[in-house]
Amino acid sequence: MKIWVSEDIWTFDLEAALGEISAQRREQALRFRHEQGQRLCVLAYQLLKQGLLETYGITENPIFEYNEHGKPSIVGHPDIFFNLSHCKEAAVCVISDHPVGIDVESIREYKESLVRYTMNDDEVQQIESSENPASTFIRLWTMKEATMKLIGTGISNDMKNVIDTATYQYTSVDRQQYIYTVCE
Hints:
3-stranded antiparallel β-sheet, 6 helices, 8 strands
């Protein structure tokens, strides 16, 4: 498993980058109303392209197919597993030879009602007793979302019981702006 992360949201030529990606991904990127969303969508795809080149020597633009819940896979490469995510500060990509999920989220204030709706009693206790409750909430949230992306179901109505015995890796950026978690 290998992870690629980029915060270079505003440094690349968006128009040029749109011409270098698949028509499928270009259409997806242009569905975002704001330039930041377009850039993040393109950046995540560029990370995937970089990872495919470095790991497998694949130079062509990947084309996606999706399962019934929207989990993507690469057409013609059923043995390559990947996942993408982005938040306002960064885009991330993970590539593996087995199913994998990744989520990245900005650390921000949260609503107690969201905590109570998405976290079980133990997780609520972790958040409330933490020195940095917002960071702890985002760490747990990204664990849940990465798990759902791993299994390919999307966000469920029962997020309280999502985290299980999967293996997690999480990283908090030094500046404490975002956290990403990988689940395998």
